[in-house]
Structures are given as structure tokens and as C-alpha cells.
Automatic annotation (TrEMBL):
The lineage of its organism: Eukaryota, Metazoa, Ecdysozoa, Arthropoda, Hexapoda. The gene is COII. Component of the cytochrome c oxidase, the last enzyme in the mitochondrial electron transport chain which drives oxidative phosphorylation. The respiratory chain contains 3 multisubunit complexes succinate dehydrogenase (complex II, CII), ubiquinol-cytochrome c oxidoreductase (cytochrome b-c1 complex, complex III, CIII) and cytochrome c oxidase (complex IV, CIV), that cooperate to transfer electrons derived from NADH and succinate to molecular oxygen, creating an electrochemical gradient over the inner membrane that drives transmembrane transport and the ATP synthase. This is Cytochrome c oxidase subunit 2. It comes from Orchesella cincta (Springtail). Residues 1-91 form the Cytochrome oxidase subunit II transmembrane region profile domain. Pfam families: COX2, COX2_TM.
Amino acid sequence: MSTLAALNFQNAASPLMEQLIFFHDHSMTILILIITIVGYNIISTYTNINIDQHMLESQPLELFWTIVPSFILVFIGLPSIRLLYLLDEVYQPSITIKTIGHQWYWSYEYSDFLNLEFDSYMIPVNESMDSNFRLLDVDNRTVIPFNTQVRTLISAADVLHSWTVPALGVKADAVPGRLNQV
């Protein structure tokens, strides 16, 4: 559960979310390194009285500043492409959950079982207890099995919705007339 003023991600509950957090840390490290080097170069150029003509019009330096960013983009892009591939498709899921967003509630249907469907309404603030999460708890929670491949089909009945489980690294938009799969 995220808390107020938390600057990091929630604890990962799936291997894919762990990979997403590692990729975030990897790309942030590279970006901080680049910002530090460029900031140092800008400050040293402004504060240096002796400006060298060879430094301003150097062909090897321009070649360096052209080639190094392409290697940095490859260094960031390859893990990103790998993660996109891993997040894309679920092969041979153990269970399929159909999720339909309505204006004030969600409907869930376990399509692998016969007649197992229910609606999930948010608990009103005046009925919630201290142990509940304010504006997050519902009357019927969705149960997702542990350590299995789960396919979730997401759609909406009336308006746009966002179905997300941050600890699993899953977020999909529920659009009326469209079926999204995660």
C-alpha cells in the first residue's frame, strides 16, 4: 500500500513488477549521470575565462557527442524492448477473469467456472471501519490465485475506467466496446 509522500514504488508482488522497478532504477541512474555531466560542462563553460577555439569547433568532440548518445539509447532500449515482450502476452493461462467497469462499480466473471460472477461496490465512508482503506475497500473483493498465469479481459459498459493493480505492474483502460487483455 502506498503512503503519503512516498517517493518509491510499492513492494513488487510479481516478477514482472520487479523487472519494471529494476528498469526504472537503471534508466534513472543513466539519466542522473547524463544530467550531472552536462550540467558540469555548462557550468564550467560559463565560469571559465579561457575559451579554447579548438574546444568550440572540434570535429572529434562533435563525433563523440553524436555516437555516445546512440550507445546510451541502445543501452536503455534493449531492456525496455525485453520488458515489453514479457508484459505483452499470457500463454496458457490457468484462469480467465472477465472485468467490466460500470459507472459506480465493477463486475467480475470467472469464465472458467459456471455461473460465478459478482459485482464489487466501494464501501461508503460512513460505513467503513478503521481497519478498512478509505475509498479503496469494496464489499466483494476479487480473488486472484497465487503463482499462476492469469488472463484478465477488461471492458466497460458505459464510461472510461482504469483497472490497475500497482503491486503486480498491471494497468489497463476499460473502454466501452473494446476488450483489453492483460
